[in-house]
Amino acid sequence: MKNDCVFCAIAAGEIPSFKVYEDDETLAYLDINPFSRGHTLVIPKRHTVGLLDTDDDALARLIARVKAVAARVKDRLGCDGFNILQNNGEAAGQTVHHIHFHIVPRWTGDALAFTNQPGDMEKLKALAEQIRA
Ligand code: AMP
Ligand code: ZN
User: Fold this and answer.
1) Which of 27, 55, 73, 80 has a CA positioned 20 to 30 A from the CA of residue 40?
2) How many domains does the chain have?
3) Test site for ligand 1: of 19, 95, 100, most ligand atoms within 8 A of the Cβ
4) pTM over 0.90
5) Closest among 33, 28, 36 to 10, alpha carbons compared
6) How far apart are CA 108 and CA 82, in angstroms?
């Protein structure tokens, strides 16, 4: 765990999250400033910064979890598609320096602009329960 890393603190249960999936080495929870309804982040519990410092085996396991969580989000929310995003470095828009994959649900014709919107905490809570179930 890295001190001052918000996602390590979430993985350690020190900061609350709207959890949708967890196993020994992976955690998935709703983004609190979602691009779209059901915007989910998938992280390894072990801290690495991004794609380049994460070893290949850990990455392979992580992307398999991203796939499984995306399938669950699509099934539970009935979205028509989804984007997978993974930012590396501030120049690329990375604001949290603990590797994470974004799953951004998409609906046909939604004309989504990829901008964060403050989430409604009650709605996020209900949504996390719907995806986790
Ligand atoms: P990135 O720009 O790829 O680093 O994305 C970081 C994402 O983490 C942003 O979309 C934030 O809204 C999200 N985020 C930051 N803090 C939290 C938190 N405590 N719980 C859930 N999502 C968060
Ligand atoms: Zn971390």
Assistant:
1) 55
2) 1
3) 95
4) yes
5) 28
6) 10
